[in-house]
Task: structure prediction
Amino acid sequence: MFWSGIEREAKLDVYDLKGLIEEFFEQFGLRGMTYARRPDSTALFLESATIQLGKQQLGEFGQLLPALAKKYDLRDAVFLAELNLDLLLARRNPSKSFKSLPAFPAIRRDVAMLVPETTTHEAVLQVVKQTKPANLESVELFDVFRGKNVPEGQKSLALRVHLS
Result:
């Protein structure tokens, strides 16, 4: 990502790519995207997720298959996104929406919860968004933990909640 400077050796991951994609959509005026992890690899991706807006698939992103990366002499994991630009341009909303400044400062809370291993973080995020808590600005997954002090068949999901 960086050709020179102190960040040249920075190691980026799929969450960095997801953040770039979300910023790109924000600039396009697209909101309400959902992400669904694919359970299996594809011809291009080792691990990937689809990007949906309603029932339309806007694209996909994930980690390039190591065999393809090796073919092009790439040393580290490569993360890429493939987007349907025709659909993006058709759904583009260039008008900016404004809202008044909040009466109170925004706060961030981190919440961890134990869920069954089969529960996806996307399902948890959807439940939070469907309940429409007052002042919820955003909610995002930042950690998944399995191991010591987590019962067998469960995992710990850590969410970062922004309230304004």
